[in-house]
Amino acid sequence: MTQLFDSHAHVDGPEFDADRAEVLARARAAGVQRMIVIGAVGDPSSAERSVALAESDPNVWATVATHPHDVEKMTPEWWAVHERLAPHPRVVAIGETGLDYYYDHSPREAQKAVFERFIDLAHRVNKPVVCHIRDAHEDARAILIAGRAMELGVVIHCFTGTPDDARAYAELGCYVSFSGIITYKTAQPIRDSVPLVPRDRLLIETDCPYLAPIPKRGKRNEPAFVVHTAEVVASCAGMSYEDLAAQTVANTCRVFRLTSP
Q1: How far apart are CA 252 and CA 93, in angstroms?
Q2: Domain locations along the chain
């Protein structure tokens, strides 16, 4: 069976408390052998849960940070959790961190300051950075450049920019990850962005439980559904499904410094 790697999943969350084992089993049955669980939703209990899940499953790894939506609520205690967990051997990146000017749930200056501080933490533990960027691509690129983040490895997760944004990230050397949004009828600019990203920088993800791809849209998303995203990304990239799967597994392993299966 063709193997896939879900590079960004929130399976630590309460949405999966009732059936997490079954969700992971369905993922493996669909060929999704490996996943990165993102410990960055709300308070740092998400980071704690993600690390615990990674400790319990050899094919799951974790990241830690605070999502830009929630940075206004950050306390010294929140930072202490991230500082403690960042060096953990099952933590493969700092993230998701970044800027979200679409919702503006936290003030923009606070988002920028926290983004910079998480890049600094990534340098101190020598791990890549997973970025959530929405309607803030120019400011985000400036911070990534100033913080020398590309030296560590940068993932632009759930890409929602323009083809010009994709080209700019590719020129910086970032990895660009595509979610189920790419399957939506309105997402032609995102589909047009795929060929502008070098094949050795493409990633795929679910961002589950959010953003289920067509034909699962409206349902709770889960890692098994990344198959549908992979099919569309492969078509946009002019690759076979099998080649896209192998390429994205290799790319995910490279950016997160994991051995290839």
Answers
A1: 12
A2: 4-255
Candidate CATH numbers 3.30.420.40, 3.20.20.140, 2.60.40.3230, 1.10.150.530; the one for domain 4-255: 3.20.20.140
DSSP 199: G
Q: In what order do the strands lie in the sheet with 91-100?
A: 4-9, 32-39, 60-64, 91-100, 129-134, 154-156, 175-178, 202-204
| pTM for this predicted structure | 0.98
CA-based nearest residue to 15, from 178, 214, 219? 219
Amino acid at 225: F
Q: pLDDT 10s digit of each residue in the chain, 261 long?
A: 999 999 999 999 999 999 999 999 999 999 999 999 999 999 999 999 999 999 999 999 999 999 999 999 999 999 999 999 999 999 999 999 999 999 999 999 999 999 999 999 999 999 999 999 999 999 999 999 999 999 999 999 999 999 999 999 999 999 999 999 999 999 999 999 999 999 999 999 999 999 999 999 999 999 999 999 999 999 999 999 999 999 999 999 999 999 977
Angle at 227 between CA 18 and CA 57, to 5 degrees: 45
Where do runs of H (alpha helix) occur along 86-225? 108-125, 137-146, 163-172, 188-193
Question: Could you give the C-alpha distances from 153 to 94, 111, 126, 144, in angstroms and in order?
Answer: 11, 20, 10, 10
CB 10 within 8 A of CB 157: no
**CA distance linking residue 192 with residue 182, whole number of Å:** 10
